[in-house]
Specification:
single chain; 21 helices; 3% strand
């Protein structure tokens, strides 16, 4: 039955591989179950209510991606978008109530549904040139690596806060940690610190398993590293001993969004921001991970990409109805793909685990960042292999791809990488007279990118 439904043999995989891939994906993104409630509770939302919305939203939308699209892509409330949500709806100086902010997320989801049904979003995959699409895959690999390095404190930032320039910029613009390049240093963390040392141990374990071509190397590495972390006091098993597995869900925010208030508050800019960032984040993630899984061909075509975007769009609005910020495709899905996940069975497995987290949160919560970080770092290597396909001999192709790659990890944003690639691709093709190489939709995207940058500068 599973073979017929998910076409396992056709995609050269099996049930065991898919389930292990789903477990791996879940373990690498389970941190969102703790992080998202922590961020959104700053708006006045109940922590457990956001936990519920995060687990249920991620669970159902990811299962839908598996059942209706047969893609090994997991979805959950996106990092970055939840932080933006928390800023605009903060209890301390936010512009909107969290109920109104949820309404903005809901409406951005409706916009996505319209764009998907009219096939405008699908056209993006064909309009964006192959060099940038390959750059997206590589950039996501580096982005995931940076996440792993930061989670484990292998990479640390030393900030020199004494600079008057930094203080002035922060005070004038309200940006947190807005630094000039001479005001911070990226350095290797303390390798004798337990979590950092555990990360290197985990990396050695995964490296050995990968070198020996052991199926399930990433998952086994996470489990073994978690166990090794117990005597090192990095893996905290105290929650298991407490025996409290079911959180208090008496203050859920299901249906709490304030649509009426949204129409009287003037949240056009807020909706556009959610829409723009989600548009490029999802596009980048679906293309990058889809290509790595062999589900999108070099021309950018895939019979299922429209369905994938529709599930993603519906997930945005569903998340808002449940009481969380924008649900989006997760780059950590690449970990499951790296483990061999090629079908929707991977997503279904991940989604079921998110739902199970409602009652087994402490069990999943003991997995330390230092155990998942080695898997993310390794996935970075797996995603990097496509760089050889980029034509760096043609500067009009090479520079946009290069900027797409480096802007993702160094600005900590997939959207920034995609935006930079699109902008410079169009510009270079114009100044070299290669107008025919630019798809008509790329002109519209370029205008949107310029609008976004000018809006950020003005804001």
């Amino acid at each position: 039955m599973l073979e017929q439904f998910f076409h396992l043999k056709e995609r050269k995989t099996d049930v065991r591989t898919e389930i292990m891939a789903g477990l791996t994906t879940f373990m690498t993104m389970a941190y969102i179950l703790a992080v998202n409630p922590g961020i959104l509770s700053g708006t006045g939302m109940d922590f457990n209510a956001v936990f519920f919305a995060t687990a249920v939203g991620a669970g159902f939308v990811t299962i839908a991606m598996g059942l209706f699209v047969n893609f090994p892509i997991a979805l959950a409330p996106g990092m970055g978008l939840n932080a933006y949500f928390a800023v605009v709806a903060s209890q301390h100086g936010g512009q909107f109530s969290w109920q109104v902010a949820l309404a903005a997320v809901f409406m951005s989801g409706i916009i996505f549904i319209i764009l998907t049904v009219t096939k405008i979003r699908q056209l993006l995959v064909e309009a964006v040139p192959q060099g940038i699409k390959t750059g997206i895959t590589v950039g996501i690999g580096l982005f995931i690596t940076i996440i792993g390095l930061k989670l484990s404190h292998v990479l640390v930032a030393t900030v020199h806060t004494s600079s008057d320039v930094v203080k002035t910029l922060s005070a004038q613009n309200g940006f947190i940690d807005m630094l000039h390049f001479w005001d911070w240093d990226l350095k290797l963390g303390n390798i004798t610190a337990p979590d950092t040392a555990l990360t290197f141990i985990g990396l050695f374990i995964i490296a050995i398993l990968m070198a020996k071509k052991v199926k399930g190397a990433l998952l086994y590495g996470i489990i073994l590293t978690t166990l090794i972390g117990i005597p090192m006091h990095v893996t905290d098993i105290s929650k298991l001993a407490a025996g409290k597995f079911l959180p208090d869900f008496s203050h859920l925010a299901v249906g709490a969004l304030d649509l009426q208030g949204a129409f009287t508050t003037g949240i056009g800019t807020l909706i556009l921001t959610f829409t723009f960032v989600e548009l490029f984040d999802t596009f980048g993630t679906l293309v990058g991970t889809g290509q790595k899984a062999g589900l999108i061909d070099k021309s950018g075509k895939s019979p299922a990409i429209g369905k994938a975007m529709l599930v993603d769009a519906c997930g945005v609005s569903l998340g808002a109805l449940l009481g969380t910020s924008t649900i989006t495709a997760y780059v950590e899905s690449a970990a499951g793909i790296g483990e061999g996940g090629r079908t929707g069975l991977t997503s279904v497995t991940t989604g079921v685990l998110f739902l199970a987290a409602l009652v087994l949160a402490p069990l999943f919560g003991i997995i330390p960042d230092a155990a998942t970080a080695p898997a993310l770092i390794t996935v970075g290597l797996l995603m990097l292999t496509g760089i050889k396909e980029i034509n760096f001999e043609d500067f009009t192709e090479g520079l946009p791809a290069f900027l797409t790659i480096i802007m993702m990890p160094f600005t900590y944003s997939i959207a920034n990488g995609v935006s930079a690639g699109i902008l410079f691709y169009t510009f270079l093709k114009v100044v070299t007279g290669k107008f025919k190489d630019v798809h008509w939709l790329m002109w519209i995207l370029t205008i949107l990118v310029l609008y976004r940058y000018f809006a950020l500068a003005a804001g």
